[in-house]
Amino acid sequence: MKQQGISSIRTINAMKTGLCSAQFSSHSQGLPKVKLNGEELMSKVLNRRWMLHVPDTEIHQIKLSPSQGRHREGPSGNLSFLNNTKPYFGGELKEKGSEDPFFYVVRDDLLHPLVNGNKARKLDALLPLLVDYSVTDVVTCGGCQSAHAAAVAVSCAERGLKSHLLLRGEQPEILTGYNLISTIYGDITYVPRSIYSRRMNMLKTHADLVASNTGHILCCNDILESSLSDQSSTSSSGHIDAHGNTENHSRKIIIINEGAGDVVALLGVIRLVQYLCQSHLLGKERQIKLVVDAGTGTTAVGLGIGAQCLGLPWEVTAVMLADTIDAYRQQEQKLISDFRTRFGFHLTDHCLNEVDGVVHWVGRCHQRKCVMC
């Protein structure tokens, strides 16, 4: 097993790409060291290959009104829920003269028949990098019914990569849901909870087993950093691995954190924000309140960073599902810091240089149903 370090990645990338354009002085992460506003920065950051061919998603309008038939009993009495699959976004989001409240639902669950919506967004920028760097194996982890693990398994299988999924707990008697999908598309190992609690050690140990004596373990941040320097140069044709070779048949293993909680996962979510703020959709002037649930919190932070960088008057509220508010805020600060380091230097006047947080974290009204897995 050989672990590829950042310094060697940079050296290889320099050989691969040749001299950068003389009009820019190269930043340590590869983006040009010039002063950019938020939209210019986003244009450069999002100029890459994606797993999803287009960022488009369906947006439905759910209107609540007094029921005259089909209804649900709620705090306000009998209400009907009317789903408008082709809403009109012109004018104000709140229809003048309308007393019926409504909200919009971003239907990312329709992006793929097997890959849950926000999981696809978090893999959107990462999967093409794995292909470009000739990664052969992916190691990640999750709960027994992990939507993230299933998304990695399916997405890797579609691209000829092998996924190794470490699932917490014991194998269920009957395989259902995401557990069944993960079993069909990935290589499953059930891990005792005591071992799973030390996630990074568990992931690295399993990656060593997969790599054996000839494989190479790569980090998400390493290949992301190497890819960024390509934005100032012309890439050669064909897929080039992290050693600068067009052909290298040894196994290359990458570790993806639980829930894809890495800075590269933010990019696909920011791409969604850029799509949603188009003038024919939510626009850039309206005050929008986005409400999401939060497992690792990565999606919520990505939405908040996207709104900040694009100067949108949007507020992101995340309902915490899995941890304490201190843990979520710590993860938020880590992701913001990582994003600043890799992309957010020299932002003008606004954005991440001025904020302590981009998400409003709230607890659940009711306890999450306990699933023993």
TrEMBL record:
Key word Secreted present: no
PANTHER family (alphabetical): 1-AMINOCYCLOPROPANE-1-CARBOXYLATE DEAMINASE-RELATED, D-CYSTEINE DESULFHYDRASE 2, MITOCHONDRIAL
Origin organism lineage: Eukaryota, Viridiplantae, Streptophyta, Embryophyta, Tracheophyta
Family of the protein in this entry: Belongs to the ACC deaminase/D-cysteine desulfhydrase family.
SUPFAM superfamilies: Tryptophan synthase beta subunit-like PLP-dependent enzymes
Transmembrane segments: none
Cofactor: pyridoxal 5'-phosphate
Species this chain originates from: Salix suchowensis
Name by which UniProt lists this protein: Tryptophan synthase beta chain-like PALP domain-containing protein
